[in-house]
UniProtKB/TrEMBL annotation:
<dbReference type="GO" id="GO:0008168">
    <property type="term" value="F:methyltransferase activity"/>
</dbReference>
<keyword id="KW-0949">S-adenosyl-L-methionine</keyword>
<dbReference type="Pfam" id="PF01209">
    <property type="entry name" value="Ubie_methyltran"/>
</dbReference>
<keyword id="KW-0489">Methyltransferase</keyword>
<dbReference type="GO" id="GO:0032259">
    <property type="term" value="P:methylation"/>
</dbReference>
<protein>
    <submittedName>
        <fullName>Methyltransferase type 11</fullName>
    </submittedName>
</protein>
<keyword id="KW-0808">Transferase</keyword>
<dbReference type="InterPro" id="IPR029063">
    <property type="entry name" value="SAM-dependent_MTases_sf"/>
</dbReference>
<dbReference type="GO" id="GO:0009234">
    <property type="term" value="P:menaquinone biosynthetic process"/>
</dbReference>
<keyword id="KW-0474">Menaquinone biosynthesis</keyword>
<dbReference type="InterPro" id="IPR004033">
    <property type="entry name" value="UbiE/COQ5_MeTrFase"/>
</dbReference>
Length: 262
């Protein structure tokens, strides 16, 4: 086995991807109408779950490029495939020529972009005429009851700043806001729709440990004593979402933005 230092990206890949993100890859590819032979770009590819699914779908006659701004995420992704063209870069300044791709896709990254309209403008720029854009973001926190209960617990225990850090991935859960971002990017015919999804962890303890380790939300914000308190209180606050086998599951829908380049 290769010798590498474990990073938050490894935690993301081993725990978050199967619990939440893997289910969305075929949904986003369907939204972009990806077929064999297409050339695809995955923006904010993370550890590669969507790019890998795209490569499988387009087959040997197609091609996939993938880009992320976090080197640790790309390091994990590169261990998975040498056929995908991995790039370190920002969504707001894509290193590709105009009209390069049949489809541009992205899942659960746009919430963290510095300039979302600029990123969407860039994604549209690199699409070929007739190409499709498909972007998935988390729906509002109120539509994910388990995570809403967890956020309320964080606020009760540790205050607004900790709770708001956890709420960050849900900030684009508003169709009107997404349409405004598209309009600012010059994308006139965009559509936004909700798609059902489920979060599933093997236990409450697994959920809490994973969230604590997430570098994009709670990572580094809780000390050992706070983590112990959160773990204990979560057993009570989240018990209503636990199945008889001890697994925890609840709804977490996404909003999917689609558009076609004229």
């Amino acid at each position: 086995m290769p010798d590498y230092k474990r990073t938050p990206a490894d935690t993301y890949d081993e725990l978050f991807v199967p619990a939440l993100f893997q289910q969305w890859a075929p949904i986003v590819l369907d939204a972009a109408r990806v077929v064999p032979g297409n050339t695809i770009l995955d923006v904010a590819c993370g550890t590669g779950v969507l790019a890998l699914a795209a490569a499988e779908r387009v087959g040997p006659s197609g091609a996939v490029a993938a880009l992320d701004a976090t080197p640790e995420m790309l390091a994990v992704a590169r261990r998975k495939s040498t056929t995908i063209d991995w790039h370190d870069g920002m969504a707001e300044v894509l290193p590709f020529a105009d009209d390069s791709f049949d489809a541009v896709v992205s899942q659960f990254g746009m919430m963290f972009f510095n300039d979302r309209s600029a990123a969407m403008r860039e994604m549209f720029r690199v699409l070929r005429p007739g190409g499709r854009l498909a972007i998935a973001v988390c729906d509002s926190l109120e539509n994910s009851p388990g995570y809403a209960a967890f956020a309320a617990l964080l606020e009760h225990l540790f205050g607004d700043s900790i709770a708001d850090a956890f709420r960050a991935p849900f900030v684009l859960g508003d169709p009107k806001l997404l349409m405004s971002i598209c309009s600012n990017a010059g994308i006139a015919d965009a559509e936004v729709y909700q798609h059902a999804g489920v979060v599933r962890f093997e236990s409450i303890a697994s959920l809490v440990s994973t969230e604590r380790a997430c570098a994009w939300t709670l990572g580094g914000l809780l000390d050992d004593a706070q983590f112990e308190q959160l773990s204990k209180e979560s057993e009570r606050a989240l018990q209503g979402f636990v199945a008889p086998d001890g697994t925890i599951a609840f709804e977490m829908p996404a909003l999917i933005v689609t558009a076609r380049k004229p």
